[in-house]
Specification:
S-adenosyl-L-methionine; Cobalt-precorrin-4 Transmethylase, domain 1; NAD; single chain; about 35% helix; six-stranded mixed β-sheet; 4 domains; alpha/beta; Rossmann fold; about 475 residues; 18 helices; 18 strands
């Protein structure tokens, strides 16, 4: 079946939907979104449609279908579970030259409702001519990942200045180059950062010049998450596919790097505990040099850039040197690793607060307030704590944290080789030695760590049988 693609302006036009169930309701909602004047026809309506009628948003014909319902209509949709009724609607619509769609029945339909990616006013429609709607939805899911949500604002901005663009860029090739610059340059980047006034000012400045402004370099600080490629955010994926240069830590796995733009330059800048280290000053110089060459730079970090990732220092450095910089947050290890280990970081019966700590860096554990950290009913999530576990354990025990406080050691959290080792606080240093724990590893100390023994669902689990860790009975509300 060869279809003619068409986007219909239904604003203010009468449209009929036959059917009163959930499928009809979804069709009505989409039509209302297009500002159509919708009439629904059915003896009975589900709760959602009935509410629309009560609110005056939809007219209702409360009876069995009659062909006269189609008089004056521009469009019709048959959404009943009775094929004979749907066929009658289609026949009556064809007789009146009204375009009709019969849900899940390509043979009876004169038009098909596509799967839609909505970045209004940019809209992408996908159709399989009714042959495989589930596959159309899969294509839509793929496009949802690729198409930036800021594209809608970009199209709206270009629409607002279309006459100026046509007048100032009369040559078609010149105009195409200008639109490419809008997409690839600072305008889209500013819209992505919710700065529409600056984006519009740059567009107008470029229009008043003889040619599009030269590409300005930029840096995006991107959190790659804890390592599992499925936990990379959609925005991070989009930015990686726009990057010219990627400065990545060793903790960023090959599966995530493989999702980036194929021809992007990749630079390993180390930054793995216990591994090769590239001085932070050198990373600063690399970001600055590539940005000043007009390149789009991604500084790709494990976890989140602003959680023990020195992203704040990098952002401040770039700001001082006048480099455009934005941030794409990542899922930090404490949240992701705990979830993969079946540990709720907070629990109304066992943990009222979370404390994220690092045992690596300036002064390490010496500056920690051990008295505060030793309080019960709070969860400690300790990054890079394997090497200093003995000192940390001694401090917590000395300040009153119970020796039988549950602990969990999560090595390579979220990755296929994840290990979860559970026990008690007084056994923590021994557990690390006995199981030869290596980095990256996250330590969780607190009552909720006991959940891992029963609820860990990913990777291998190792519980100490001689120390059966159990939670106190939950309070009854």
């Amino acid at each position: 079946m060869k279809l003619y693609p068409l986007f219909a302006d239904l604003a203010g036009l009468p449209v009929l939907v036959v059917g009163g169930g959930s499928i009809a309701r979804r069709k009505v909602e989409a039509l209302l979104g297009a500002d159509a004047q919708v009439t629904v026809g059915a003896p009975r309506l589900d709760e959602g449609l009935a509410r629309m009628v009560e609110e005056g948003r939809v007219a209702w014909r409360c009876s069995e279908f009659a062909p006269t319902w189609l008089d004056g209509m521009w469009l019709a949709i048959a959404a009943t579970d009775d094929r004979s009724i749907n066929a009658a609607v289609a026949a009556a619509a064809n007789q009146r030259r009204v375009l009709v769609n019969v849900v899940d029945d390509a043979e009876l339909s004169r038009f098909h409702v596509p799967a839609v990616v909505d970045r209004s006013p940019l809209v992408v429609a996908i159709s399989t001519a009714g042959a495989a709607p589930a596959l159309a939805r899969r294509v839509r899911e793929t496009l949802e990942q690729v198409l930036d949500h800021a594209l809608g604002a970009l199209v709206a901005l270009a629409q607002r200045h279309r006459h100026r663009i046509v007048r100032r860029r009369a040559d078609l090739a010149d105009r195409r180059a200008f639109y490419d610059w809008l997409h690839d340059g600072p305008v889209l980047s500013l819209l992505r950062r919710a700065q529409p006034q600056q984006a519009e000012r740059i567009l107008l400045d470029a229009l008043h010049g003889d040619q599009a402004a030269p590409q300005a370099g930029s840096v995006t600080l991107v959190g790659a998450g804890p390592g599992h490629p499925g936990l990379l955010t959609l925005q991070a994926l989009r930015v990686l596919n726009e990057a010219d240069v990627i400065l990545h830590d060793q903790l960023v796995g090959t599966e995530i790097l493989a999702m980036a733009r194929r021809d992007a330059e990749r630079i390993d800048v180390g930054k793995r505990c216990g591994g090769r280290q590239v001085p932070q000053e050198q990373i600063h110089r690399l970001m600055l040099a590539h940005a000043r060459e007009g390149r789009r730079v991604v500084r790709l970090k494990g976890g989140d850039p602003f959680v023990f990732g020195r992203g704040g220092e990098e952002l401040a450095f770039l700001r001082r040197h006048g480099v455009a910089c934005d941030v794409v947050p990542g899922i930090t290890a404490a949240i992701a690793c705990a979830a993969f280990a079946g540990i709720p970081l907070t629990h109304r019966d066992h943990a009222q607060s979370i404390c994220l700590l690092t045992a690596h860096g300036k002064d390490a554990t010496d500056t920690l307030d051990a008295r505060m950290l030793a309080r019960p009913r709070q969860t400690l999530a300790i990054y890079m704590g394997v090497e200093r576990a003995e000192a940390l354990t001694a401090q917590l025990l000395a300040h009153g944290r119970a020796a039988d406080t549950p602990v969990a050691i999560i090595e390579n959290g979220t990755l296929p080789q994840q290990r979860v080792i559970t026990g008690t606080l007084d056994e923590l240093p021994r557990l690390i030695r006995q199981h030869a724990v290596t980095t990256p590893a996250l330590l969780i100390i607190g009552e909720v760590a006991a959940f891992a023994a029963e609820h860990a669902w990913s990777g291998e689990q190792y519980a100490e049988p001689e120390h059966a860790v159990s939670l106190p009975p939950a309070k009854v509300a």
